[in-house]
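User: Show me a protein chain along with its predicted structure.
Assistant: Here is one chain, sequence first, then C-alpha cells.
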Amino acid sequence: MPPELARRIAEMSTRNLRRALLMCETCRVQQYPFSADQHITLPDWELFLRETARLIVQQQTPRRLGTVLARDVIYTSRAYATMSVSVCLSVMEVHWRIIANLGFEFRSQFTVHCGHSAC
C-alpha cells in the first residue's frame, strides 16, 4: 500500500483501527493494486449522519426535526441488527446533541409538535 494512501486512511478513520481496516478493505475491492491518489469511501452510516445534518440545517422547523429524527430511529433500528453498537450509539448521540443545543423556544415548539404527532 502506498504510504500516502495509508496516511489518508489513518486521518479519515480518526486513527480508529477497526474503521481503518474497513476503509482498507473497501479500497481493495474498488481497486487493486492500490494507488496513492485512490478515492477512500466513507462508511454508509457516516454518510447517513452527514445527510441527516444537512436535512436538519436545510429547514429548521420542529416538524422537520421530528421527521429527520424518526427517519434516524428507523435507520438505527435496522442498523442495530447488522452493525456494531458504536454506530447506533453515534446516531443516538447526534440526536441528543441536536436536542440539547436547541434554543428554549424551539425546544418547546418541538415538544409540542411531538405531542401532537403522537395523538
